[in-house]
Amino acid sequence: MIVTGALERLAQCAAVRLRENEKSAGARVVASLPREAFEGVKNPRDVRSKELVYPNADALRALRAAGAEPIGEDEEAMRAALREATCVVFAEETPKKLRATVEATMKRVDAGDAPRLRRVVLLSRVGVERRDAGDPWKYMNRKTFRGGAPLTDAWEAEEAVRARAAKTVKAGGVADGWTYTVVRTGELRGNGPTTVVYADYALTLVDNAFDVRMQDVEVKNGDTMGPDYTKRLSAAAFANRMLTTSRYDVLNAEFSIISVGPVPRERRKGYDVAKGKSPPPVSDRDIDEQLAPGDDADGERAPDAVPAPV
Questions:
Q1: Residues 76, 26: contact at Cβ < 8 Å?
Q2: Rounded CA gap, 30 and 224, in Å?
Q3: What confidence tier does 169 reach under pLDDT thresholds 50, 70, 90?
Q4: In 137-216, which residue ranges form alpha helices assigned H by DSSP?
Q5: What is the dihedral of CA 214, 96, 4, 186, to 10 degrees?
Q6: Element (H or E) spanning 268, and its range?
Q7: I need a surface site. Which of 60, 170, 195, 243 has the fewest CB within 10 A?
Q8: d(CA 158, CA 150)
Q9: Residue 279 is inside which H or E element, if any?
Q10: Could you report how far apart the first and last alpha carbons of the chain are, in Å?
């Protein structure tokens, strides 16, 4: 399994949860990061510094400790990983990067580089279908200094996946049909499994509090939720459940997920994210209850996406 965008906390959560969840614990998880995650970058707080620093050392340690395999995002490494992958989770937090990664991967799929691919999960954004429907969506989709309109970029990433999944192409005699699930999140909050380096201290405290207070989720089909926040760990847990569930109604479908709360005081006691005491992620059972009415009535199971543990 490949998780893209692991320089950021959403993808780190997804990679760690895949290794920790018993339904996917036996699978090989590959987390892709840009070259600077391994080689280091210049200290952003000291432009005169000539020394390279490693702002992602905590991320690399967390991924390796969980049993995930960090790799570079270069062409050769990604092609090699894709040849063995049965699942891909696209988890870039920046829609512009998300779109670029999805489009590059779909080209590799077209070239026959993903013969074992069964399932794709794309972490997108709430509001993509309403990006031109007036405020707040039109304001949220305004072009940013980084280039691109966020909701448009996320929508086009979705479209690239949908268009490619609709094809039944045979390359070298091997059929490459696969299914997808789009998971749309609100604005992301929560720190996930790693510390925040060079981030605003006040924002870090806000994310710590969010992790403790907002432990539950609300899920709906399509794109009907208002602008709100989604906990990174909850989004990752939901995305991973889309790989391990046997439900047919999650295949080639779109869902939105936001965090709800705050939970009662009793459920917050004993947790201190700053000291490594975080609430557990939303469970597979809770996710399944949000996806009622349940599995197919005839008892059929969707094709397994995650290889069974050896």
A1: no
A2: 33
A3: very low
A4: 137-140, 150-165, 201-213
A5: 10
A6: helix 265-268
A7: 170
A8: 13
A9: none
A10: 15
Q: Express each pLDDT in 62-117 by its tens digit.
A: 788 888 999 988 888 999 999 999 999 999 999 999 999 999 999 999 999 999 99
Q: Are 271 and 212 in contact (CB under 8 A)?
A: yes
Print burial letters for 76-96: b (CB count within 10 Å at least 16), e (below 16): eebeebbeebbbbbbbbbbbb
Tokens of 112: 């026959």
Does 294 have pLDDT greater than 80? Answer: no
Q: Where are the beta strands (DSSP E) in the chain?
A: 2-4, 30-33, 41-42, 52-53, 69-72, 87-90, 119-125, 170-171, 174-175, 179-185, 187-189, 216-221, 229-231, 253-260
Q: pLDDT tens, 190-238?
A: 876 554 444 456 667 778 888 899 999 999 999 999 899 999 999 999 9
Rounded distance between C-alpha atoms, residue 252 and residue 119, angstroms: 9
Nearest to 6 by CA among 85, 86, 101, 147: 101
In Å, what is the CA distance from 260 to each residue of 178, 219, 257, 282, 289? 32, 10, 10, 12, 15
Please provide the CATH number assigned to the domain covering 2-290. Answer: 3.40.50.720
The residue ranking higher by pLDDT, 33 or 220, is 220
Q: Where are the domains of the chain?
A: 2-290
Q: Give Cβ neighbours of residue 141 (< 8 Å, ≥ 6 apart).
A: 127, 131, 132, 149, 150, 151, 152
**Spatial contact of 30 and 69, defined as CB atoms under 8 Å apart:** yes
User: 30 - beta bridge partners?
Assistant: 2, 69
User: CB–CB of 228/257 below 8 Å?
Assistant: no
Torsion region of 252: left, alpha or beta (phi above 0 gives left; psi -120 to 50 gives alpha): left
- Rounded Cα distance between 247 and 123, Å, is 19
CA nearest neighbour of 67 among 183, 193, 178:
193
